[in-house]
Design brief:
The chain is α/β, with parallel strands linked by helices and 297 residues long. It folds into 2 domains: 125 residues, Rossmann fold; 106 residues, Rossmann fold, CATH 3.40.50. Helices cover 45% and strands 16% of the residues. The strands form 2 sheets. The chain has a 5-stranded parallel sheet with strand order 2-1-3-4-5, sandwiched between helices. It has a 4-stranded parallel sheet with strand order 7-6-8-9. Helix 3 crosses helix 4. The N and C termini lie far apart (69 Å).
């Protein structure tokens, strides 16, 4: 009897160890084969597409709409020959990271990353699944994107030079105020471009570094009395409080030049920027080429 109980105990222990090992295998981070052919997608009746959206912003929604429209124009219709899994991180970095892992784990044929942060998150977790970045600020400057043979897409390079040249014709802007987020690499890059343009045009800059821990209105007030016009770079945190910024600037009679066309709809006097819908459409066309068997160069 004792020997049988002992055998049963060992069998239960072995069963438990096997279950633990199986759980580790199922839930470990996705790892793909080295040397796999990147970009080639086998023909099938139903393709699985993952769309990873960084933030809950109008311009990103427009990019998603453009992507879906391009897929439909290319003969790929939702529910017919493609399945679309849209992951919206809502500006949450952890959700973005988990969303990227989920899309890779679910073996998507293509991942379409909306915005720079989505492209970086996807690039971190896969070197095999084709990634189409849409609205990515810098493909070659970001560490996560360097040497990524599975990454392509459409850039969203800031048109700071054109914006300032155009505004300079119609708006008094010396000195020119700018509020930027020092913790955002994209915002800092735009500031560097703005400094170069301002120096060339002999325009003085009055810079305010935005602090997420302080009240937005108090920081916007710092520009009043120091600038004849204000330039607002693209930055998620500042965009969240753009209406408050416009209220302060309108009361002070200071015109705002926005990096995005969306800012004009919310009160900025001028912006020169690309169509985000068309940007998304261009990204969707690249995805169509991949689905038809093209390989990333």
């Amino acid at each position: 009897m004792a020997s049988k109980l002992k055998q049963l105990w060992w069998l239960m222990l072995l069963f438990a160890i096997c279950n633990i090992a199986m759980a580790v295998m199922l839930y470990q981070e996705p790892v793909e084969k080295e040397g796999a052919t990147v970009g080639y997608i086998e023909k099938k009746d139903l393709y699985s597409i993952g769309i990873l959206e960084t933030s809950d912003l109008p311009e990103q929604h427009k990019m998603v709409s453009g992507v879906i429209a391009a897929l439909e124009a290319g003969g790929y219709e939702k529910g017919k020959n493609i399945q679309i899994d849209l992951v919206q991180a809502g500006g949450d970095e952890k959700k973005l990271e988990e969303g990227a892992k989920k899309l890779v784990r679910n073996k998507k044929d293509v991942i379409i990353a909306i915005g720079s942060q989505s492209a970086k998150a996807a690039a971190k977790v896969t070197k095999g699944t084709p990634i189409v970045g849409v609205g990515v600020l810098y493909f070659q400057k970001e560490e996560e994107m360097l040497s990524q043979g599975n990454l392509t897409g459409i850039s969203d390079y800031p048109l700071v030079v054109t914006q300032i040249r155009t505004a300079h014709r119609f708006i008094p802007m010396d000195p020119l105020g700018v509020i930027y987020n020092p913790s955002d690499p994209g915002s800092n890059d735009q500031l560097q471009i703005l400094r170069a343009v301002a120096e060339k045009k002999h325009i003085k800059l009055y810079e305010v570094a935005y602090d997420e821990k302080q009240k937005p209105e108090a920081q916007f007030q710092k520009l009043v009395g120091h600038a004849k016009a204000v330039y607002v770079p693209e930055d998620v945190e500042i965009l969240k409080h753009f209406d408050a910024l416009m209220k302060v600037m309108n009361e002070a009679g200071i015109p705002v030049i926005g990096e995005q066309s969306e800012m004009v709809q919310r009160g900025a006097v001028l912006s020169v920027s690309p169509s985000y819908y068309r940007m998304g459409f261009s990204g969707g066309r690249i995805a169509c080429q991949l689905l038809k068997g093209d390989v990333l160069a």
